[in-house]
Amino acid sequence: MDKFAVGVDFGGTKIAAGVVNLKTGQLVGVAKKKTRLAHEQDDIVNRLFAVVDESLQEAAISIEQVSGIGIGAAGMVDRDKGVILAAVNLGANNIFLTAPLQEHYKVPCRLANDVEAATYAELHFGAGRDCDSFVCIFVGTGIGSGIIDNGVIRLGASQTAGEVGHIVIVPDGRQCGCGGSGCLEAYASRTAIAREILADLQRGGDSVIRDKIDMSKGILRSKAIASAVEAGDQMVIRAVTEAANYMGIGLANVINFYNPKRLILGGGLVEALGLYFKTAECEARRRALKIPARTVEIVRAELGDYAGIIGAALLIDSVDK
User: Fold this and answer.
1) Cβ(275)–Cβ(229) under 8 Å?
2) pLDDT in tens, 184-235
3) Are 236 and 197 in contact (CB under 8 A)?
4) CB atoms near residue 41 (< 10 Å)
5) Which is the most buried residue in 75, 85, 158, 171, by most CB within 10 A?
6) DSSP 305
């Protein structure tokens, strides 16, 4: 008999929810809304209600037919209390999520970091399903990772392991959203690429991407970047290559320190840009120690935009195990 749960991917640019078949990983109904940053508790929760309701409607499934609701949220979370503690890319701190959802829907709810959830999905249904030691790194608004050791997600002493985006790669370098400086996220994320392109445009540079970027906010989507690269736009190619080289440095650090069997790279930027993935892989192998660099597999994630939703739903499945 099929078993279903709702998974919610609460990220820096969108909130997406889907009804997931827990046996197959198949989505049977999906809904999305743009994330409204820096809003109050009630506003955030009401948007979650709306996207969950819409996903259930799309799947033609009632809340009584699902085992629960899992949420993967960007930032640091308290899994036991169901609280987003701090999320730089959401503009949200100390936001309670599971309690209001449980009260509203009368089903079990669980919370995890969004990259942790996506890693869980890749472990069960994606690029990590045949591997028990890997690191998933997702590149988007920010950069995060999930660590699998002997088939188990490792969370660390304070349950905040995987913040690879905040490895310092340039001492006293660019300011990062976390409050520090020189972090990988400030150099290799989509946000970092957009900022570099915006700065070039403001200096009078010429690019086909000028009409695709929000000049006031520096917001630029991965598909727009990919289109500019395909068009041979040198400004964009330069920004992407520089960011990917920095990502390669970060990957080399992970390879040297953790020595995983596999590195799985995901997120919209990696999916859309072969240039980013290939450049980062080459730089990682060039910089890492020879033996681990030779043995590590570096592959793309397989579940795309839906990894976070699927993994969040699987959080509910783990309750029964």
Assistant:
1) yes
2) 999 999 999 999 999 998 898 888 888 777 666 667 888 889 999 999 999 9
3) yes
4) 13
5) 75
6) G
- Percentage, residues of the chain above pLDDT 90: 68
Strands (E), 225-294: 262-266
Tokens of 304: 């795309």
CA 140 to chain centre: 6
Helices (H), 75-213: 98-105, 114-125, 185-188, 190-202
pTM for this model (two decimals): 0.89
Order of strands across the sheet that contains 4-10: 27-34, 14-21, 4-10, 66-73, 109-113
Whole-number Cα distances in Å, 42 to 47, 48, 100, 181? 9, 10, 9, 33
Average pLDDT, the chain: 90
Cα Rg, the chain, nearest whole Å? 19
pLDDT digits (tens, 9 = 90+) for 34-48: 776 556 678 888 889
What domains does the chain contain, in order, with CATH numbers? 4-120+305-320 (3.30.420.40), 131-301 (3.30.420.40)
Residue 89: pLDDT band (50, 70, 90) is low
Measured between its terminal Cα atoms, the distance across the chain in Å is 17
CA distance 120 to 128: 9
Q: For 274-301, what is each residue's pLDDT tens digit? A: 999 999 999 999 999 999 999 999 999 9
Q: How far apart are CA 145 and CA 164, in angstroms?
A: 6
Instruction: Give the pair of three-digit tokens for residue 143.
Output: 């950069």
Q: Are 73 and 111 in contact (CB under 8 A)?
A: yes
Element (H, E) at 210: none
pLDDT category, 320, cuts 50, 70, 90?
very low
Q: Can you tell me the distance from the alpha carbon of 81 to that of 238, in angstroms, rounded to the nearest whole number? A: 44
Reported as type and span, the H/E element at residue 318 is none
